[in-house]
């Protein structure tokens, strides 16, 4: 059986606490942190089991219990760990209230809205990572999120606000949902929607990544739907076949592909056969307590702030590559997701390095 921390001696209070954490989750951040400190106990292996190669002590996936668990779950379901981690972190941020933001390291508060591109050839299992996350990962705390297929730019605002009839014959806008995970398994869909004459999808997605105001100022107030800045959580997961990646890469001038975190749906270290996990195993992630009513900023380590400010200065002097224009903010969003998955509201230097 592959180790996935934390594991304790069967029958001990620590083992019972861990089992409760995994199966039912907990809203106690202190318990979640303590569980991660429980020492790992190696179990006996049978000669008939197919095991993945023993991890290098300096291996990236061994640096944190959550990462080790993600890889163990990936190997048990024959899924690429990178793709599985990408869709899990997307779901973590999808569950976070939009009131939680990154601090104004440069310019202004930054949104935690995240875009993930899962890259793989046809049949490589781009959608499999999402299916595993849906079936075997549980997120405790935060808010629930709605699931929407990707549509037009105008349709994005409709995922969050609706209109209802008022007494004067007009309609009033009201908030329907604040947290939405948009998904499309084929990048062709994104390309087709973006290339239509008069299409507004790419522009809306670029604005949404930064948490900017969404919607269009139609003359008819009954058709006018707007979503205020930082009043919505939008997370997007797109499946990308390399030969068709032009649907995204052709948008480089506008900055669309630079806003994506790219993960691979293949992994050469995947074992020949699935490794073992209990049938009822669930990877439980407990979010910290978040005030969903007022604006709340995460703390960010000085190293990340300095790196971002140095890059900003170079960009303003015209000395940076356009393809790297949003790389550091995308990295900071991943670091924030890793912190939140560790039941914390502060991005540490370790989070920053792991995200890099």
Task: Outline the fold blueprint.
Blueprint: H1 13-24, H2 29-35, H3 65-76, H4 81-94, E1 100-101, E2 115-119, H5 126-136, E3 137-140, E4 146-149, H6 153-158, E5 161-165, E6 171-175, E7 179-184, H7 187-195, H8 201-209, E8 214-215, E9 226-227, E10 233-240, H9 246-249, E11 260-264, E12 283-286, E13 296-297, E14 299-300, H10 302-316, H11 327-341, E15 346-347, H12 349-355
Parallel strand pairs: 1-13, 2-10, 2-11, 3-12, 4-7, 7-10, 14-15
Antiparallel strand pairs: 5-6, 8-9
Helix pairs in contact: 3-4, 4-5, 4-11, 11-12
Describe the structure.
Residues 1-11 and 26-52 have low confidence and may be disordered. This protein is an alpha/beta fold and 356 residues long. The strands form 6 sheets. It has a 5-stranded parallel β-sheet, sandwiched between helices. A two-stranded parallel sheet has the order 1-13. The protein is globular. It contains 12 helices and 15 strands. Helix 3 (65-76) packs across helix 4 (81-94), helix 4 (81-94) crosses helix 5 (126-136) and helix 4 packs across helix 11 (327-341).
> What value does the average pLDDT take?
81
* Number of contiguous helices: 12
Rg measurement, Å:
21 Å
Query: How far is the N terminus from the C terminus?
Result: 30 Å
* Helix and strand element order: HHHHEEHEEHEEEHHEEEHEEEEHHEH
Going across the major beta sheet, what is the strand order?
A: 4-7-10-2-11
Strand content range: 15-25%
């Amino acid at each position: 059986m592959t180790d996935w921390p934390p594991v304790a001696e069967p029958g001990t209070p620590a083992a019972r606490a861990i089992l409760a954490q995994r199966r039912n989750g907990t809203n106690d951040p202190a318990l979640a942190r303590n569980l991660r400190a429980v020492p790992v106990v190696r179990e006996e292996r049978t000669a008939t089991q197919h095991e993945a190669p023993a991890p290098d002590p300096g291996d990236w996936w061994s640096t944190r219990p959550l990462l080790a668990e993600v890889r163990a779950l990936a190997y048990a379901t024959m899924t690429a760990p990178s793709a599985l981690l990408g869709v899990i972190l997307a779901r973590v941020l999808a569950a976070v209230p939009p009131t939680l933001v990154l601090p104004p390291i440069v310019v202004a508060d930054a949104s935690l809205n995240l875009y993930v591109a899962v890259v793989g050839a046809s049949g490589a299992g781009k959608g499999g990572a999402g299916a595993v996350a849906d079936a075997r990962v549980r997120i405790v705390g935060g808010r629930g999120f709605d699931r929407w297929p990707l549509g037009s730019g105008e349709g994005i605002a409709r995922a969050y606000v609706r209109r209802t009839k008022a007494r004067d014959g007009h309609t009033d806008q009201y908030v329907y949902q604040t947290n939405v995970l948009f998904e499309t398994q084929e990048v062709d869909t994104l390309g087709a929607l973006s290339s239509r004459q008069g299409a507004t999808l790419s522009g809306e997605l670029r604005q949404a990544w930064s948490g900017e105001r969404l919607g269009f100022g139609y003359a008819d107030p009954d058709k006018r739907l707007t979503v205020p800045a930082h009043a919505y959580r939008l997370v997007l997961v797109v499946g990308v076949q390399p030969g068709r990646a032009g649907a995204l890469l052709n948008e480089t001038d506008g900055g669309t592909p630079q806003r994506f975190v790219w993960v691979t749906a293949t992994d050469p270290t995947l074992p020949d056969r699935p490794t073992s996990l209990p049938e009822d195993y669930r990877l439980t992630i407990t979010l910290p307590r978040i005030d969903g009513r007022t604006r709340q900023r995460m703390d960010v380590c000085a190293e990340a702030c300095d790196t971002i400010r140095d890059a900003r200065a170079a960009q303003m002097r015209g000395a940076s590559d356009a393809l790297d224009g949003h790389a550091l903010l995308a990295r900071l969003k991943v670091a924030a997701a890793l912190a939140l998955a560790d039941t914390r509201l502060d991005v540490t230097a370790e989070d920053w390095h792991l995200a890099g």
